[in-house]
Design goal:
47% helix, two-stranded antiparallel ribbon, five-stranded parallel beta sheet, alpha/beta, Oxidized Rhodanese, domain 1, 2 domains, elongated
């Protein structure tokens, strides 16, 4: 997989237009993102659609950024698996971009998605236990269901609760704040 450092990418941006997609969740993107990045969340990434929307610049490199480089590497693999090999992972992601003093857009802060999942799972587990004790023992099944879901998420890396919470209105850009531009 091709990679580029944030400093190399910033240097390239001074001389030519670059196309950067940020594959984090919309709420993470809204919190802080490289000024030149546009939001294309990993969970809904369709490599063919992204390349088609580039209006004839599919032969130019597509730079992929996330928080620290892990999700962008996964996204690059999706592109390569779909037959698009001109994708470049941005090493260190938005954290490195911001730390290097490069231009970022800061927006509305929200709780990180995993913290939202923890709050929801904890609440449902507590409610299931309380209802099981005070109302009917069958309500313990709610706690068991949440626990089983957490075990599956831990084993597979896929969390339906996180996917559902990510689609909630407070986790979407909604205000048009999901576009960026990287012109020279």
């Amino acid at each position: 997989m091709k990679t580029v450092t944030v400093k190399q990418l910033a240097e390239k941006q001074q001389h030519e237009a670059i196309d950067v997609i940020d594959v984090r969740m919309p709420s993470e993107y809204r919190d802080v993102h490289a000024q030149c990045a546009r939001s294309v969340p990993l969970d809904s990434l369709d490599p063919a659609s992204v390349m088609q929307a580039r209006n004839g610049t599919a032969h130019e490199p597509l730079y992929v950024i996330c928080r620290s480089g892990n999700r962008s590497a996964q996204a690059c693999k999706k592109f390569v698996d779909a037959g698009f090999d001109n994708v470049v992972n941005v090493e260190g992601g938005t954290v490195a971009w911001d730390k290097a003093g490069l231009p970022v857009v800061r927006g509305k802060k929200s709780l990180p998605l995993m913290q939202q999942v923890q709050l929801c799972a904890g609440f449902l587990t507590f409610v299931g236990a309380a209802l099981g004790y005070f109302v009917h023992p069958y309500f313990i099944g709610l706690s068991a269901f949440v626990g089983a879901g957490l075990m599956v998420a831990g084993a597979t890396g896929l969390c339906p609760m996180a996917s559902a919470i990510a689609k909630m209105p407070w986790n979407q850009c909604g205000d048009g704040g999901c576009e960026g531009s990287c012109s020279a």
